[in-house]
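Record 1 of the preview.
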Amino acid sequence: MNKNHTLILILIILLGLLLRLWNIDKPEGMWNDEYLTWSIANLKFPQDFFKGVANNCHAPLHYFYLKGWMALFRDSDISLRVSSLVPGVISIFTMYLCAKEYLVKKHGELCSLAAAFLTAASGFLIYFSQEVRIYSLTFLISSLVLFYSLKVFNNPSNKNCWLLTLFSLLLIFEHTIGFVFVLFNVCALIAFMQRKKKENNLFNNILAIVVLSLPLVPFLFNLFAHPRYFSQWWAPFSWSKLLFYFTDLFSPVLKNISNAPPSFLEQIFNNAALNIGFIIFALVPSVICLALAIKAFQNGRRVNWYMLTVFAATFLTVLAASLFGKIIFLTKYLIELYPILLLLVAVGWSTMKLRGLKISLATIFAVLTLFYIVVSYTSPVRLVREEGQRLAVSALKGMGVQNSDRVLYLYYPPSRFEKYTKEDNLFFYANSIDKYNFPYIVYPGDSDTYEAFKDGKRLYRDVFLLKHNEKLSNFLNDNYWSKINKGDKFFIVELKSVSFFSEERLDNIVLNGEQYGRIPFLYLVSSYAKNYALKESRTKLSYIGHWDSGSWRVYLFEKA
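->
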């Protein structure tokens, strides 16, 4: 690599670092998934920690990583976010290495720099480099798996095979569906490597991966045989998500982070008018990248077909699981495939023969991507975690909450807010009707959480029409009405993004079979609990007002 290329690579890495550092300190705090990740890593080692890891739906490696990070750098929000930034920046260099190993002859350096830039400027990776979740580290490990897969493809030495084994194991223990990618990756390697190159210890490495992964088998079996959430609970599959998957990866416009909009066409046609912004900043970069990825196959190399096989097999497996309600189809759940796609785009672009077209496409992509990231209020660095727990606590403080006041949390338990309540020594007399205990509070008969997640639509249909729910009334009376004295304040903390149906609207949905079958159970049960709690509160207390903050709404009542 000559000095100019070295300088360009350093500048690209610096660009990626600056984009990831920009606005990394989120004033809204961590949202639920981040908070849960931190709370598990924060558990006392070893007994509580191992129990928390075993009861979660994600593979264990990231919790060990985060626990080690907190031991060295504490657990402030910004420190926790930097734990994702570091692997995010390292990934820029590992993708450079992947493209270099691909061996694009005279285009090798150009291809490597292109892969590095695509990684540095990826809105998707920038977003997760600022989030306290598994995905930034997962991408780094996935890029290393791809790097050593390419090295094995080119030179199946013992060293390369064992390093591939190491990073494959790390991926399996980092991401719950990492084993799917590793399985197809190894099978594709065997199928597409030239026959003379198969005289190596790759089969021994496969055996090592299988044996060393056995401790994870009970965890995976329990997870997929008894899933905590079914598609009816949160976000049923829609074919539009397939299109949002590619716009998320190839453009700075992120739509499928937690749940994609119901229709891709509605993003293009907004109120019967063309949505120029979405077309320019989401569709144009995505079409360019997809076209370049397809062009990469013009050189006819076997390594391209190996990568396509891994991508197709893994993608279709996750798609099938989504169709059967075993997993939610989100872009981040397929992050293992992102290094392959980025490499193919870099190969397609660097091998273009028309210099003018090559420069034009690179300029259009870079300008649109960076302009959107820098300027747009929905830029990946500006996307607000609307469910950030600090927003709810700030709203409570803004409404004058005192330690003696009582709080009812809806959807999340009080423990989800302790990190931010402790900042100001606020310890509320708090209970909750949350996503873990609602069957024991809302459902009149005997029901558990697993049964409610799996078959809640059928079990709760009549419950949603109840105007008097004795079990729920007893919960409110025992925890609040019987304990509130004159002048005491009572707060209800609502998550608006899951409880937005009024009582009348909820009744209409329940009585309409088509609507009832389409709307996720999460929104129905959350809306019912909110409506009932508010109605009961208005009959027992004086309503003072409410405060909105992000996805939160805090209602204030007082005992007259």
